[in-house]
# Entry
Amino acid sequence: MRNIILLFLFLSLNNIFAQTKKKTTSTVKKENKEYFDIEKYKDWEIDNDHSTKENYKFLKRGSERVEIDFSEDAIKLSLKNINSPYEFVKVFSNSTKRLFGEAIYFYQFPIGIDKDYDENGKLIKEMNNDKLYKFSVQKLIQKFKKEYHVDLEDFKLENYVERFESEELKGKAFYGVGLVSEENKNKTRYYLIDGTTGKLLYKTFYYRREGRSPFYEYQIKLDNREIPDKYLLTFKGKDYTRNEWDAYERAFYKKYKGTKKITDP
# Structure
């Protein structure tokens, strides 16, 4: 009987030890011991494309760029590559130099999980920026590679991606993708994508000089209203509306660049 009791106590203590060890390991994984070290960038050059000051530095190394903002309470570090739409942002304590916040951006909007840490490096808060977007950024990238043969991760193409929720449409989530036309750099093909299903909802084009929003056009279409074809410009003494100028451009490129197929967006 005594042996059975001892065995029971041994198993109980062993179980408690295992749970404690597991909990400790889990806590360690959620801790961050990263510190800001300006020496990491001692071999980087000053980026003369921006105005560098004592408390605001722009540095570069090859295609990499880093922006460091020294304020009274914090040090904000933004790291990116000029050929990539991703930006990695980290915020450090100015007094301890310890990391207390980090985030990732894609075409200037936040993606993934924002993380906040306390003064000991323990994870205290997370915010999921992708919660409303069941159709993820990676799925969007794959969609445009497969269906439109465009790599949204290639920043050199000068395209853009946005995502947003519409209060007018009950918080519905959207992606907006603008692809610069190969024929005319002032012309952009626009694709509105459902942020939940990935379905193409609307496509159109617009010129850089125009002020109206493609999403506004989509809302008009939902109301079954006609989009006004307004005056766009005057060329060689003739006034053109948006659609007339687009037709003129297509005819021009078809005539003088007959080897290149001109299509609507």
